[in-house]
Amino acid sequence: MNVTYACPQCDAPLRQNFDESTTELTCPACSQRVETPPGAVEGNQVRRCLVCPSTDLYVRKDFPQRLGVALVAVGIIGSSVAWFYGSLLWTWVFLFGTALADVVLYLLVGEALMCYRCGAIYRGVAEMDSHGGFDLETHERYRQMAARMKS
Are residues 71 and 56 part of one domain? Predict the structure, then answer.
């Protein structure tokens, strides 16, 4: 199991392995130590975030969102250009080709567990479905809390 997160002190991107016996995560850049809460990991299950005090986690596809948006953009632009030049066949090739690529990637890519509060991403974790999928209300609550803390 591993966690990808930004160091709370220096914002350096980190990826560290952990298990049930892990008591702290240490940043190699600034030596900042983050103590993991007791009971956060049970076996191969993550019960709460190791980086922040949040217990709100959700499951998502472990896929770079920018790549997904780029795939959609290629489909839209390619089909629009083909349509402009009057090639109905190439219009459908672009649309169905990018849709097929999207479905294949969806089926091949695994899932990751993500923290609403700090954005930490957990990979290789068992029983992620117990946390559920993304909830906009929970996300908005944490977004509003972060905005209030900045001001």
Answer: no
